[in-house]
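Example record

One chain of 367 residues, shown exactly as stored in the release files.
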Amino acid sequence: MSAPDLKPRDLLDLVRPDLRGFGGYKSARTEAMRGDVWLNANESAWSNAADANATSRRYPDPQPAALKTALSGLYGCAPEELLIGRGSDEAIDLLVRTLCVGGRDAVVATPPVFGMYAVSARLQDARLIEAPLVDGPEGFAPDFDAIAKAVLEQGAKLVFLCSPANPTGASIPLAQIEALLQTLQGSALVVVDEAYGEFSDTPSALSLRARYPEVAVLRTLSKAHALAAARVGVVIADPRLISVLRACQAPYPVPTPCAELAVAGLSASALAATQARIAIVIEERARLAAALSALPGVRRVYRSDANFLLVRFADAERAFRALLAAGVVVRDQRAAPQLDDALRITIGTPEQNARVLAALSAQAEAA
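Predicted structure tokens for this chain:
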């Protein structure tokens, strides 16, 4: 779709009018004060009897400084370009609430895709415009003409792109994202969810931000960094948008123990171990994909840049039950659009992957 003759919009024009300049709630921890007796937040003067480290009676730093420094270094951005939240889920919700006026504005999602984009839109009463992925010889890919039409003709404010995509697995080439940005000319915020980015060779959309303030990137420590329970995710965007999002965020999003664990998990030694495990996942991904493709009853194994494989089966119910009987739990995707015969299998350890293959091989032989 060729770019129309549009006047580029200022980034903050995309924010809900009633939230431009909104100050939000000023918690006790946002006040820069010094002292050794803290009586400003109505906290207990004593620690809980079960709190061995005596650290949990105080409210946490809303944006923990050490964690913010570590994350900005990890992703190569300035601290003011980054907002820490409770996983990518909170960032998705904040973006929809901050940009979309309920009952009027719209969000674009590309099913089959991560369900939180649609959930957040519904909770905000924002219209959901679906631009379904196209299943082709190379796998599922976005329909960029449909996405652009949703923005330029239906006035969508937000576009969510998942790269690598969940549950389909493919990354979106950076040139295609840039072409979309050029077509839209700032008419919508394009959010690139890179939750699985560490497993992909495709360059991050972070490199586009210097030229396109209307692009935001989501990253998380839940996947490659093995910190899913810590619930640490970030949105990286223009500092003006980050400031608005922070004003709309709950006062204390990151518990102190989670922040401390995340900082430790981003140490040089921890990062080295993470890189080694990413390499194992990538190697196992290729091995498992090849082995699954050779099994009777497997219709298709999609190319994946993530830590999972999307697999179509001649009898997905039978395959699902065979795996459960072997103690292996996978994600049933059959209720998702275009995936009525598909399961999503996370890449496990070599031993776990062997159990997957053994269970599916046994049920194929018994057929």
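Notes: The chain has two domains: 11-266, 269-366.
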